[in-house]
Amino acid sequence: MFIDSHTHLDIDRFDEDREEVVERAYSKDVRYILNIGTDVESSRKSLGIARDHDFIFSAVGVHPHDAVSYNDDIKKSLSNLLKDEKAVAIGEIGLDYYRDYSPRDVQKKVFADQLLMARDTGLPVVIHVRDAWEDVEEVIDSTTNGDVKGVFHCYSGDLETALRLIKKGFYISFGGNITFKNYKNVEMLNEIQIEKMLIETDCPYLTPEPFRGKRNEPGYVPLVAQRLADIKQLSVEDIGRITAFNANRLFGIAPETEEVKIVYKIRDSLYVNPTIRCTADCVFCARLIDPVVKGHNLNILEKDEPTAEEAIRLIGDPLQYKEVVFCGYGEPTLRLDFIKTVGAWLKSKGSIVRLNTNGHGNLIYGRNIAPELVGIIDEISISLNTHSASHYEKIMRTVYDFDTFDPMLDFIRKCLAADIKVTITIVDIPGVDVESCSNIARELGAEFKVRTFNEVG
Q1: Are residues 340 and 439 located together in one domain of the fold?
Q2: How many distinct structural domains can be found in the chain?
Q3: Are 304 and 417 within one domain?
Q4: pLDDT tens for residues 206-262?
Q5: Are 259 and 309 in contact (CB under 8 A)?
Q6: Is there a domain that residue 457 lies in?
Q7: Over 353-404, what HEC string results?
Q8: pTM across the whole model
Q9: What's the CATH number where 94 sits?
Q10: Containing domain of residue 377, as a range?
Q11: 391-430 confidence digits (pLDDT tens)
Q12: Fewer Cβ in 10 A, N or C end of the chain?
């Protein structure tokens, strides 16, 4: 599923075939469209289009090009339009010093006024910026006090600015220009978390390759997703799902993206989410705050934990995946019988099976569970996370009132002794001695992997 978070279907270039354009988009799995107003007239027309289609929504606002025409009557008209249930954002607003169609001081005043409108209505904003990054941040900081969220559409700023805006609660959106051969900011796309990105066409403008030069339309947004997938080493399906989830978090237009997942796919692996319960509360873990990974909501309640039969039904044909992994935001070995039953079924089908664990299995059951995993689990990823017992307790915050670092290391030894492949992992947070952790893995005879902080999945 894809969401095109920024279109201009209201303009006259779509008058002759607007319905066909919308139908083509839907056939390309574009399930929601946000059409953006640039003045009162276009906002009104945009709402009309949205009312005619269940999956199209609208933003209402005055573009910086038209700021010079802004007055109290226009403000009143916008306020009335925002009462429509299809109006889910205020935009396209912002600053444009490249064209300077409106005086800069007027642009800033109108931008600030619409930010205050967003604050008062609780709606997010869709922001246009060109050659005015310093002033845009100054107006936001001096006007909203952090109370307004939104997206910077068709982002053209630098990485430092993007990261600063993300910290302020904004999303960053990218369009067809990232597919151009002369696009120079691939490294920036690498550095920005996909969890903070949206995708868009900005149609009819910025048509992606290979259709550059032709009129753009929402059905081309999967091409933007494909380019991001190539850069992020994810699948197009992943990019569509994640950015749709993000768009819903901002605009509230796709509530089905919040459905809790029992099984979930990332790239060509399938993950099974047995529980959110855990024997640790790691300082870097979002389990108790917002347990989402790559657009999948894993916030499963204990009463809704799946049975083995339910998980098997949801998995379907396991051979369509590279591997099946027991991994949620909780500790899977808390449901050892579940793992053994589902794992045995997976192996009977010829699957490769992996277990991601904090290594507390033997502590949980008071026995060596490694032999019980033989023939069921092909590989175990165990969260070492740091190099010393004292630091381990500080960052893991386990439920136990005794040292759990050494028992975790012993679990690793027991798994290796059972001829189960083990990969030891750490998260690259401050205070973790990566070299010492690597040495521990080498001495134990395990593989070693460093996971990036804030990059889950």
Answers
A1: yes
A2: 2
A3: yes
A4: 999 999 999 999 999 999 999 999 999 999 999 999 999 999 999 999 999 999 999
A5: no
A6: no
A7: EEEEECCCHHHHHCCCCHHHHCCCCCEEEEECCCCCHHHHHHHHCCCCCCCC
A8: 0.96
A9: 3.20.20.140
A10: 263-451
A11: 999 999 999 999 999 999 999 999 999 999 999 999 888 8
A12: N
